Amino acid sequence: MAAERSEILQGTLDLMVLKTLAAMGSLHGYGIARRIEQLSQSALEINQGTIYASLVRLGQRGWIASEWGTSDNNRKAKFYSITKAGRKQLHTETAEWERISGIVGRVLRVSERG
Amino acid sequence: MWAALKAAYARMRGAIVGRAGSGEAADTDFDQELASHLTMLTDENERRGMSPEEARRAARLQLGGEAQLRETNRDLRGLPFFETFAQDVRYALRMLRKNPGFTAVAVLTLALGIGANTAIFSVVYAVLLKPLPYPRPSELYNVSQYPASESGTKIGGWSYLNLEDLRRDSNIFTAVAGSNSHQLTLTGRGEPAMMNTSVVTGEFFQVFGEQPLLGRVFTPDDAKVGGAPVVVLSENLWRGIFHADPSIIGQSIQLDKKEFTVVGVMPSRFRFPLLTESEQLWVPLPQDPLFGGWIDRRGGHWLGVNARMKPGVSMAQAQAEMDALAARMAKDFPENRDWLISVAPLQNVMTGDVRIALFALLGAVGLVLLIACANIANLLLTRATSRAREMAVRVALGAGRARIVRQLLSETAVLGLLGGVAGVALAYWGVVALSAMLPESVPRVNAIRVDHFVLGFALVLSLVASIGFGLAPALFAASGDLQNNLREGTGRSGESGGRRKMRSVLAAAEIALAMVLLVTAGLLLRSFSKMMASDPGFQPQNVVKADVSLPRFEYATPEKWNEFGSQLITQVQSEPGMQNSALAVPMPVTDGFVNLGFEIVGAPPLAPGALQTGDYVAVSPDYFRVMEIPLLAGRTFNAHDAMDSARVTLISKTLAQRYFPNEDPIGKQLSFSFPPDPGTPREIVGIVGDVRDVALDKNPGPMMYVPFAQAPLPGAGVVVRSSMSTSNVTAALQRSVAKIDKDLPVNDVKKMPDELEESVAQPRFRTMLIGLFAAMALVLAATGIFGVISYSVSCRTHDIGIRMALGASRQSVLRMILRETLLLAVAGLVVGIPCALAASHLIAHLLFNVSANDPLTIAAVGIALATVALLAGYIPARRAMAVDPMLALRHE
């Protein structure tokens, strides 16, 4: 069950989905999954289906909106876009993420040197 | 925070709407989304050169398991925990409906247990736990000055002068007040009537922090010596006799023929003492006709003192301060030598002796509930066995162990709540019955009701109980051997050894618990029958008592009291059928007792701290004849023992034996340190039999009697032994009193046997209730044994059939089943006896002339329990005997 995954992993995926939507505008689930795969250069091995849990969670918090539409190659698909609240959240989360990865990086550097 | 709320709302909505049907729409939506995703993935794969077949397969792998995704999606949308819970509850209700017999038995058993617990808890809560009905009640403390010899009970009292020292010298209290109660005669407003009067010092209303309904409370000026006489009325008194007259403030009323100005009316919610009737009045101590005359004596101990503690003062700090004060007071005034001071929360002091009895009752009903739970656990175990196959199928279909335990616990929770609801209904009825039965001497009886606090208790109790009886069966059910259970079909003979052992342990535990209750009940019953059979020391049959008090302003001198007393007895005896009458103050059993110190003239002085006391009663000469108290030596009083003759006294057998062990007390002299005639030697002229003057269940102590004519009091109790009806006796008494003074009321006319009964009302009440609970325990334990044995028989029908086919006689089958029953009972008794002994020592306080280890009671209860168990086992054993071997063998 996805809910039992570690919080960080869940949070990271949610953050990546938000980031993707912020950068790309309106996008369907397949597009989001592809985009994340490209960005991480396939370093992040996930089933594409996993992002749907993220999408439900983000939708419930009101950070993304969705509607049915038609894709480039004329396929019916559900399109997601980031909301205003979502952008705000992305901003705070990114800052938090950078702060934490900064700390982690520093700790790693220090321990390498010592 | 906002986003989290929003998400929670969305999920809740999902959970509720999801059930209503639009959940299917959401599922379809998600299916379409997945389908579209798959199509796009497949397109992409085809573009990369895969065959359509391959492309579709790869796409499925890339996306992940669809069923799992769908499940996750559904869980995320709603509240899976609550949804499965709701599903479990629906399922549980269906199961219970399908097994009406089981449901009825289980719910009824639980309802009895929970109902009894809730009812008793409502009493315990109202009487012991509920905060006192005053503002900030936790600040209220009782302060007792008690003799060092009373270190157990800490019962004592204060003199006005000592109280003033306490008030002035201690700075841990914001207010300190003394009070005592008696009755004053109200005249000039219709019929003369006795008023319950609290005599209080200046800060009384500040201690209790209650505002008046009308007018004002007392000021320090009112409570000064020489202040104008003022009075505060209770609301009910004001609404009753004074017809809610709003102009009552400033009016004058006559109490004991003295004018008092009404300054205030207290609202009806304010009561102190809590036990008095709602109609009462308060007067400042110095203005009181009786106690006002005592304020300059330091040596008395007659005021109860309550105080409001400053916030933040700890008990230890307060007690340390009081210890220092006691030491200082003992140094400054010799009267205070060997007197100590204790502080205790007012609530604990008020409920004093009722506490043990009520907690014992609560313990007893708790045991009943435990037995009920064991019974239901047994029923559930039986059912779990027959449901083993169902569980095996569930496990085979993928249900986790936790999931099965949860489902079974949901079932028992539903059962528990059903039992709880039925139990609360029973409790409502039980509380009405209990309130009617509770003795009047239990404080705050009027506050007993099933309120939200008690309902909360019942709810928690039913949930805890359902986990209690449900957990073990649920765990057993979930741990069954899957393969075996699937194979075994009906599961009739497929009971695991563990489960059978569990069931036997439960049945034996029921016997053990029932043993505890039955022994307790047996001991209390024996105590009570001994109480009732104990000799009060006088013959109560056909004796009626009444009370006549004199207004102390009109009858101000001992000469007048004496004159009234002799007139009264002459008038009463001149009425037809009333020749057998006499006076006594205080009246034994009804009035309580006055325990006073005495010295033996010519004996060496007492060691410091040693007390030599007896209960003091002033009586007219005929008293011993009327009450039929035997004269053991010497003579009783006669008409010559008057004010102007030598002072005499009579002593009781116990006093004679205790203080004159090796000599003849007659002709010796006692002297009393209290009025009248303190220090004057009184010759002992006779010895009379002992009397249980306090209550039937209190053994008699030393007593000393003086002639009323030599120690008159303002008013007296009258005892009449007459074959006439009580109403005729009352009428005759009223005629006699009216001939002397038409303003005097005759009060508290009671039959002596009723008064004796009343004195054991509390033991009667608890004995009856614990007896009732013990009976419930016995029935429950018997059904428990019956259930276990009959189930064991039905499981072994086949086995028994084979035995009989091989030549076993019916008798040997019967013996086998009964042996099994007896084994359970003996196991229960072996565990039960030490538990019962432990319990009986806890209630040793409540026993009367019966040892907590009373072997007779324990043996009787043991035999009774074993017999009941055998009877309960006999019914299924008969069925086993009747097994037809052919039928049983063909059965498989």
The run of helices and strands of chain A is HEHHEEH
**Helix content estimate of chain B:** 40-55%
Instruction: Report, as a whole number of angstroms, the end-to-end distance of chain B.
Output: 64 Å
CATH superfamily assignment of chain A?
A: Winged helix-like DNA-binding domain superfamily/Winged helix DNA-binding domain
Oligomeric description of these chains:
heterodimer
If you compute it from the alpha carbons, what radius of gyration of chain B comes out, rounded to the nearest whole angstrom?
A: 38 Å
Number of DSSP-assigned strands of chain A? 3
User: Beta-sheet strand percentage of chain A?
Assistant: 5-15%
Strand order of the largest sheet of chain A: 1-3-2
Q: How many domains would you count in the coordinates of chain B?
A: 4
Helix content of chain A: 55-70%
What is the rounded distance between the termini of chain A? Answer: 41 Å
- Overall mean confidence score, pLDDT of chain A: 78
Biggest contact: A-B, 28 and 28 residues
Order of strands, widest sheet of chain B:
2-3-8-5-7-6
The fraction of residues in strands of chain B falls at 5-15%
